[in-house]
Amino acid sequence: MGFLDQLKDKLAPVKGKAAGLARQHGGRIDQGLDKAAKAVDRRTKGKYSDKIRTGTGKAKDAVDRLAGTEGGKGAGGGATPPGNSPPSPPPSAS
């Protein structure tokens, strides 16, 4: 048995627990991701909005895959679904 096989065997219980937590708290995780994305987008003054949106979508897809829900399967390759995107940055004072 190779090193990676041993590692997978040891991490199997952790993956199961993480999947259960993702199923149980998926909505709260999504809200936290949205809140973090909004804060980062505000701090960067919208300069990286597209990258933040893409990263948030990929993180949500990963949580959905871990939880075993259908939300992460075929959801546009990591794009945040409409209505869940971080809000536009506040207008800058000129």
From TrEMBL:
<feature type="compositionally biased region" description="Pro residues">
    <location>
        <begin position="83"/>
        <end position="94"/>
    </location>
</feature>
<feature type="compositionally biased region" description="Basic and acidic residues">
    <location>
        <begin position="27"/>
        <end position="64"/>
    </location>
</feature>
<protein>
    <recommendedName>
        <fullName>Antitoxin</fullName>
    </recommendedName>
</protein>
<dbReference type="Pfam" id="PF14013">
    <property type="entry name" value="MT0933_antitox"/>
</dbReference>
<dbReference type="InterPro" id="IPR028037">
    <property type="entry name" value="Antitoxin_Rv0909/MT0933"/>
</dbReference>
<feature type="compositionally biased region" description="Gly residues">
    <location>
        <begin position="69"/>
        <end position="80"/>
    </location>
</feature>
<feature type="region of interest" description="Disordered">
    <location>
        <begin position="14"/>
        <end position="94"/>
    </location>
</feature>
